[in-house]
Design brief:
The protein has about 375 residues and is α/β, with parallel strands linked by helices. About 40% of the residues lie in helices and about 15% in strands. The strands form three sheets. Strands 1-9-8-5-4-2-3 form a seven-stranded mixed beta sheet, with helices on both faces. It has a three-stranded antiparallel beta sheet with strand order 7-6-10, with no helix packed on it.
């Protein structure tokens, strides 16, 4: 039996190539590879999809976060509150600007705890970077109240949450600035690193368009030293095509999730049920259980690929040593690193594959 993959990019391309390849060829034949009309079209499409006034294409989700922090004036000596259970880039972008990442522990659902955020606010706090992990949106009602109370802006790290909703509003539209990744493994995926920023603020939008392109006001005049964070036309072509199919892809992922819920609900596993007002796009389907390592080995033995997102929390990474966090600093996050497991979830999974996965998980518990 072939291995059931968590993500199958080759299968995605096989299904798309008849329609997508001519678009790629057309882009290459145009000779416009940087700053083309294709970029402008994608930015309008993304803004419309996310329900914001503006979107700006970037070359990665990481650069999107860096640009957002820069827009808010984050600099050396400032503090930015974020979650310790994200991908390393969330904290790295804060450090790149000379600011200090200040972590707040998460809840049982892996999302940052608003009560912990408020405990970490000081006079140096410049922003709150909320991470919508695995396609789930954080408790934005509570977090926005904190933001308003202390007059601290919010950045949504929505790298894993394109298309997710919170009481009907999409990720990236719930704060001052939303940041997304279109890395190949994301639900809306390019064929290389890509990303975008969303905002309703016209000033932020205007400044972003300059910041991503060397700070140039025209071909020869630069007002400020900035970044090279542009998306290329080839990736924009691919994303414009795939954006049209994104809602269908999310619906298919939600169908996979509903089958997992149905077939695994009576096992000693914590399943990622949706919170009130939440519409999960299921970038990942993360379960929690005590015998995580044993189950992961058992599934791999039976040709089922799983993952752990993420086994080492950011505060215990070698890169974070200077922040002086220790084991025990964030007990819930640390506990979850030993219990979380990402099951296969993608729109190309068949019902027979899902049934097989669930069957093997049940067999594991029966044998134990």
């Amino acid at each position: 039996m072939k291995t059931i993959k968590r993500v199958d990019l080759a299968k995605q391309w096989k299904k798309e190539k008849f329609n997508l390849l001519p678009l790629i060829i057309k882009t290459l034949e145009s000779g416009e590879y940087v700053g083309s009309k294709t970029i402008n079209i994608l930015e309008k499409n993304i803004a419309n999809y996310c329900g914001t006034r503006f979107a700006v294409c970037t070359n990665s989700g990481t650069d999107s976060l860096t640009l957002a922090l820069f827009l808010l004036g984050v600099k050396k000596g400032d503090e930015v509150i974020t979650a310790p259970n994200s991908f390393i880039a969330s904290a790295a972008t804060i450090a790149h600007l000379g600011a200090k990442p200040v972590f707040a522990d998460v809840k049982d659902d892996q999302l940052i705890d608003p009560k912990e955020i408020e405990k970490k606010i000081t006079k140096k706090t410049k922003a709150i970077m909320v991470v919508h992990l695995s396609g789930r949106i954080a408790d934005m009602k509570s977090i926005k109240l904190i933001s308003k109370k202390f007059k601290i802006p919010i950045i949504e790290d929505a790298a894993q949450a394109i298309g997710s909703k919170y009481y009907g509003k999409k990720s990236g539209s719930l704060s001052e600035i939303g940041c997304f990744s279109a890395h190949p493994l994301k639900n809306l995926n390019a064929c290389g690193d890509s990303g975008f920023v969303t905002t309703n603020d016209a000033k932020y939008h205007k400044k972003l368009k300059t910041l991503i392109n060397h700070g140039l006001e025209d071909r020869n005049m630069s007002k400020t030293f900035a970044y090279v964070s542009r998306m290329d036309a080839l990736q924009a072509t691919i994303l414009n095509y795939r954006l049209k199919n994104l809602d269908h892809k999310i619906k298919q992922r939600r169908k996979v999730a509903s089958l997992y819920f149905k077939k695994l609900r009576d096992l000693p596993i914590k399943l990622p049920y949706e919170n009130k007002g939440e519409y999960n796009s299921y970038h990942l389907f993360v379960i929690q259980l005590k015998k995580r390592n044993e189950l992961q080995k058992y599934l791999m033995k039976n040709n089922i690929e799983t993952g752990v997102h993420y086994p080492i929390p950011i505060h215990l990474q070698k890169a974070s040593k200077y922040l002086n966090y220790k084991i025990g600093s964030f007990p819930i996050t640390e506990k979850q690193t030993k219990t979380i497991l990402s099951l296969p979830i993608n729109e190309n999974l068949t019902i027979s594959q899902i049934n097989y996965i669930c069957k093997k998980i049940r067999e594991f518990f029966n044998e134990k």
